[in-house]
Amino acid sequence: MEEVSHHYLILIRKKQNKAFASSIYYNTEAIGGYVRKAHASRNGISSHSGSCAY
């Protein structure tokens, strides 16, 4: 019984790590888009891309 639950925990942890890594990636992308937008507006160019969430 211990073996099975231990194996299951490892599987869960791997899934969580994968989800965590992808969320970091998406957050980084969002922040990058926000920074690009801020730079653009500072330069007097208001660039609105449809894919942007802001």
Features:
54 residues, mainly alpha
What is the strand and helix layout of this fold?
Blueprint: H1 2-42
Order of helices and strands: H
Report how far apart the termini are: 49 Å
Based on CA inertia axes, which overall geometry fits?
Answer: rod-shaped
Q: Specify the helix fraction band.
A: over 70%
**Mean pLDDT value:** 76
Q: What structural class do the secondary elements suggest? A: mainly alpha
Provide the gyration radius in Å: 20 Å
The DSSP helix count reads 1
For the sheet with most strands, the description reads:
none
- The oligomerization state is single chain
Overview of this protein structure:
It is built from 1 helix and no strands. By secondary structure, it is mainly α. The radius of gyration is 20 Å and the shape is rod-shaped.
